[in-house]
């Protein structure tokens, strides 16, 4: 079975000005962006909350968490599904040090993948000159210009009082 060649991400990790709306969304409401990306990718929309709540709970018990699990798992799954170049080591590094940039990059990638291509079809329309379809006409009664022959008198009007 032939494998498809690996491609690059549609945008770089720090290409915020390529899609400023996504970066503003991630900056002002990062957890909302993460939940949106997770849901659009087909995972549970609440999965990124594990990064926020899980890290806080574990830190409360004195267990530091370096790698946020949700961003790492979604990023690795997205790379595998779309055949994007990279490695698990790079995914771990990006997830540790640039989690919000990673969510923004994945959001841009999903937007790029969801674009519907515009297909323009040009057809050669041939015009045929045809005569119109004949229309049936009602029969026309022919009236003779000569007076009726003698002896044949047909009256349509009778006068009773004559």
TrEMBL record:
Keywords assigned: Membrane, Transmembrane, Transmembrane helix
Keyword hit for NAD: no
Domain of life: Eukaryota
Residues that span the membrane, as ranges: 52-72
One Pfam family this sequence matches: PLAC8
Keyword DNA-binding listed: no
InterPro entries listed in its UniProt record: PLAC_motif_containing (IPR006461)
Similarity field: Belongs to the cornifelin family.
Identification of the protein by name: Cornifelin-like
Organism of this sequence: Neolamprologus brichardi (Fairy cichlid)
């Amino acid at each position: 079975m032939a494998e498809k060649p690996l491609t690059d991400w549609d945008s770089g990790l720090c290409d915020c000005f390529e899609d400023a709306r996504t970066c503003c969304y991630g900056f002002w409401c990062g957890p909302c962006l993460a939940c949106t990306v997770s849901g659009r990718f087909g995972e549970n929309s609440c999965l990124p909350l594990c990064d926020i709540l899980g890290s806080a709970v574990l830190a409360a018990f004195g267990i530091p968490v370096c790698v946020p699990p949700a961003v790492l798992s979604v990023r690795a799954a997205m790379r595998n599904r779309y055949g994007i170049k990279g490695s698990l080591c790079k995914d771990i590094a990006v997830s540790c040090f640039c989690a919000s940039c990673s969510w923004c990059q994945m959001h841009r990638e999903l937007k790029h993948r969801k674009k519907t291509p515009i297909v323009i079809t040009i057809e050669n329309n041939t015009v045929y000159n045809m005569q119109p379809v004949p229309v049936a006409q009602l029969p026309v009664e022919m009236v003779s210009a000569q007076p009726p022959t003698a002896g044949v008198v047909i009256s349509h009007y009778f006068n009773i009082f004559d």
